[in-house]
Automatic annotation (TrEMBL):
Name recorded for this polypeptide: Putative thiazole-containing bacteriocin maturation protein
Organism annotation: Fictibacillus solisalsi
Amino acid sequence: MQKVNDSMCLKMNRDTFIIPDSNQGVAVRNNEKSLRMEGSTIDRWLERLTPMLDGTHTLQAITNGLPEAFQEQVYKIVQILYENGFARDVSQNIPHQLAETVLSQYASQIEYLDQIRDSGAYRFQVYRQTKAAVMGADSLLPSLVQSLIQSGLPCFTIFLTESQQSLRPRLHEMMKKAAKKDSESKITIMQSLKNDWSTELKPYDSVLYSSHGSDLTELHALHSLCKKQGKTFLPVTISNGLAFAGPVVTAKSEVSWESAFRRIHQCRNQAPHTSPSQTACALLANVAVFEWFKEVTGVYEGRKDTSFYQLNLETLEGTWQPFLPHPLINGRVSAEPIENPAQFLETRAHQPTNLYPLFLHITSTEAGIFHVWEEADLSQLPLSQCKVQVADPRSEGPSRLFPELVCSGLTHEEARLEAGLFGLEQYISNYENEFFGENRPFNWGAGIGQTAEEGMGRALQNALHEVFQKKQDYFVSETPLNLSSLEDERCQFLWQSLKTLKPAPQLFSGEAVLGFPVIWVKAGENWHGSVGLNQKMAVSRALQTALITAQDKETCHLPYGVTASSVTVYKEKQPEFSFNEETWKETFLSPLNRLNQKVQFYELQAESFFNEHTKDIFGVVLSGVEQT
C-alpha cells in the first residue's frame, strides 16, 4: 500500500463506523475488518477530520495552515484509514460524463462500485452504455425487465415471440414508468425470429435469458451462440423443481451453464413442477441482474471461482453454490499409459498428501462431486463408519446420485479417509468411455491415494475387486483356516469385533483371482468374501465386509468385498497365513511379476482440481481375464 501524499483526495467509505470506547480509544469498523486506535484525544481528531474526507479536498488543502505537529498527526491518522480500507483516494478516478441527475438518482450503485473497485461513476457509465437483449419465459421476463430498469440500465431490447404478445401491455407500462424516472430511458420491444438469432443478436454485448420448463433447447442454442460471438450470457433457469440464476458466462471464462447444470443435483424434496411465485421470480431476477451488473462494471475482474445462485421455490431460501468446470464440457479427460510402473514410482514424491481439504471442497448437497461425506446416523461401534454419496458425472443434468457407500476404519479419521478415497474412485471410474473410447476394458480399476504407490496399489486392488464381483460361482475350501497364526493386530481386532456381533464366525480360503488370495468369512447365514493384494489385505477386507453388514443391515453396496447366501465348497490344502509387514510400495510392486503381461497402468486426467490436490490418479486394466 502506497503512502498518502499531499495530492490525494481521500473519501471515507460509507460502511465505516467509528465507535468511541471507555478506554481512551476508538473502534473503527467496516464490513470487512475492524481496528482499534488509541489516544486520549483520538475520538476528537476523528470527529473533526472524517467529515473533511469527502473526496473534494486534497490532503494539502486539509492540512494547510496547521502547525507541523498537527499536520503529522493528520497524515498519521489518514495513513491508517487508507491502508486498512476505511478511506479511498478518488483523485485517480477515471473521468465520467454522467449527468448530475443520474449521479443523484443512482448514488447507491455508484458508491458500491467506488468501494469495491474505484472510478464508480465511470464504471456505471460503462454499464449504462452496454447493449443488452432480454428474452425468455413469460413467468420470468417481466421480473428481469423490472430489475434492469431499477439497476440503472436505460436502454435495452426485449425480444418477444408470437406466443408472448400478451405481455406487451404490462411491459409498456413498465417502459412508461422508466421514462418518467430516467430521461435517457429507451427500451424497445422486438419480434423474435428464432431461426435468425445470429443476426438478431449481433448488435448486442450481452444476452439475458430466462427459461422455465424441461425443454432447454433454446437455452443451449443461445449459450452456444453467445460463446461463438463473444457475448456475455446470463441464464435464469427454472427446471425440474430447481431454480437458479447464473452463472455469468463470458467469452474469456472457462465456466459454462452446461457445467453448472451437470453439477447441480436432482431435486428430491420439492415437487418437480412447482410454479414459481412472483416473489420467487423477482428474487431470481434481482440476483441475476446484480451479477451481470458486477460483471459488466468490472467488479469480478480477476475472479477465479465460479458459482450460481440457487433458490428454493417453496421456502424462498437462497444460497450461492460454487461448482467446478465439468470435464465432459471442457474436454479434458485422458489416460496416459505408464510403461514401467516401478520406474515411474521412483520419479514421484513419497511424502503423503493431506486429502481432507480436497474432500471438504468437493462436498455439497446441492452441486458437489460428493453429495454427502459424513458419519450421519451410522453406528460407530465396533468400527467407526463414514458414508459417501457420489454424483454421477455422466448425467446431462441435473445430476443423479449413486447409492451411498459405507466405509469403515479403526478410527473416525481412517473411516473418513476411506470413504473419501472410495468416493473419488467411484466418480473417476465413470469416465471409462472417455479414458478408453471404444476399447473399454472389461476389467479395470481407478485408484487414488495419499502417495503415488498407494494410488497405484488401490487401482490394482479395485480392478481385482471388479473381477471378483463378476464371478458367477464362488468356491470356498471345506476346512476353516487355522487362526493360531493370525498375529496381525488389525485383523485380530476385526476378528474379535465380529465375534461380538456374530456368534462363532469362521474364516475360509477361496479360489484365487489371478493368483491373488481370496478369503471368505462365514458369519451367521451369509458368506462375506474379498480378494486382496496379499493375505493380510484379503482377511482385513473380508472381515470389514462382514462387520459393515452386521453393523448396518440395510447396506447393500459394499466397497471391500461381496456377500453371498451360498458358495460352492471344494477340497484343497489350506494355505499358511503370511502376514509380513509391508509398505504400500512393497505391497504394490510384489505382484507385478506375477501378473506379467496381464496388467497395464495409466495416469488418468479428468478433473484438473483433483490433480492439483492429489498424488495423481491411476487406472489399471487387467487383460486376458474371462468372465466366470
